[in-house]
Amino acid sequence: MHWSNLFVISAGVAYLSAQTPGGQTPAAPPVHTVVTPGTPSVTPPAAPVPPDKVILTVGSEKITAQEFEEIVDALPEQVRAQVRGPQKRQFAEQLVRVKVLYQEAMKRKLDQNPRLQTQIELQRENTLAGFLMQEMTANAQVDDATARQYYEQHKADYESVHVHHILIRVKGSSLPVQPGKKELSDEEALAKAQEIRKKLLAGEDFATLAKAESDDVRSGANGGDLGTLKHNQTVPPFDQAIFSLPPGQLSEPVKTQFGYHLIKVDEHETKTFDEVKADVEKKVRPELARSAVANLEKQTTVVIDDSFFGPAATPASAAPAHPAPPSAAPAAK
């Protein structure tokens, strides 16, 4: 893992933020690190470290084990485990670079630069605002009525189906023509799908026909099994078909841009409110926090000069998503 030398000073605590994967650490002045003789340079001691033990010295600044833990606690949650584990040494070395640069910046009195003071103050305000938002979200009280209302409005999010299908490719499909098969026109593909449907209704095995006939090679090898799908994981015509088809019933041929599908839903499940209550509350809390922020804004005198900033933008309607197609491309299994 690489660490950038981007750091934030907030409430007297300096902390590093994780760099995106594949990034490079910016160059920094050489650092002279002193390793205490006899101290392992890679493997941390197994015994608990006293919180007041000095574990890092940078110039005249000394950092104890407890202070180091406080620095790590200020990092984004997703990187703490790495910093406390395999990347501890690398993080310490990068922290040294930050401290060296910070000490040199103070010697040069860069903190007195008006432009930098503005940056520091804006960063301070942004950090405090972020922490308050986190606190408001974590402490938002979700009553049962609000949670149930959200569940009813988003019940589709907790709905899933286990699906099998047989795909008959049609000319113009983005799927390649399988070796030994001819490219079928729309009429020929539909006729073949209807022929296979008759065989299925007559009792022939779905999995056997899927392996032999489906142009979705990946699911066909598994007897047409697409696994469990949720809403909007496939293209709209397929999505609509699988969530409207009763379990155990064979569909009519369903046309998508890939060809004609014969679909069988094995199981259609909608989780109950009690099963997903914790997840619902987790999703509602940010909404309640945003509502609280909106109320704070209403209670605060705010004047935005339209002649300077321009008129307020009209909220644009969200464009519909274009989900992935079923299997040969599915976002599913």
Report on this model:
Residues 1-40, 317-326 and 328-333 have low confidence and may be disordered. It is elongated, with a radius of gyration of 30 Å. With 333 residues, the protein is α+β, with helices and mostly antiparallel strands. A four-stranded antiparallel beta sheet has the order 6-5-8-7, with helices on both faces. The protein has eleven helices and eight strands. Among the domains are: 3-108, no CATH class; 152-270, Roll (Chitinase A, domain 3), CATH 3.10.50.40. The longest helix is centred in the last third of the chain and has 27 residues, at 273-299. The chain has helices spanning 65-73, 77-84, 88-107, 114-139, 144-153, 186-201, 206-213, 217-220, 236-244, 273-299, 306-309; strands spanning 3-10, 13-18, 54-58, 61-64, 159-169, 225-230, 254-256, 259-270. Strand 3 (54-58) and strand 4 (61-64) form a beta hairpin.
